[in-house]
Amino acid sequence: MLLSLFVLFRLKGTSTATTVFRGGGFKVLPAILIYGIFNTALPEELFFRGFLLKRLMQKLAFPLANSIQSLCFALVHGLIFFKAVDIGSTIMITVFTFIIAYGMGYINEQKGQGSIIPSWVIHAAANIFSGLCAAFMVI
């Protein structure tokens, strides 16, 4: 989460998915929870680790399959900011997101018996954290 603060700091002043919560304090907490758990984390985990990684693992060794799903996940997240921030920040976001995605794929498949629940919890926690940072104007 500490590394996430650095990423959020680099995005300061940029419109993000959590901008809508900016300055809302406790009154936006229910919206942050819905956003963090169900609106973003669940569908992304279902697609990237629940569908894409599982299909890739049917054809490829786990390290390569996990790298491909991580790259897809990272590119989607990096491209969102491509026109909004400088190239260095875009690369940083993409690399950071790749590493996190690879770790979540590893945790699911190697430690979580193939369940997406571990990565869903991690992903939701990160989204809630960024929403709370916006709501209480930490960044």
Automatic annotation (TrEMBL):
Q: Which GO terms describe its molecular function?
A: endopeptidase activity
User: Which InterPro entries is this protein grouped with?
Assistant: Rce1/LyrA-like_dom
Q: Which UniProt keywords apply?
A: Hydrolase, Membrane, Protease, Transmembrane, Transmembrane helix
Q: Which residues form the CAAX prenyl protease 2/Lysostaphin resistance protein A-like domain?
A: 31-129
What are the GO BP annotations of this UniProt entry?
Answer: CAAX-box protein maturation; proteolysis
Residues spanning the membrane? 27-48, 60-81, 87-108, 120-138
Has the keyword Transmembrane been applied to this entry? Answer: yes
Family as reported in the entry's similarity comment: Belongs to the UPF0177 family.
Q: What's the name of the protein? A: CAAX amino terminal protease family protein
Report the source organism: Streptococcus criceti HS-6
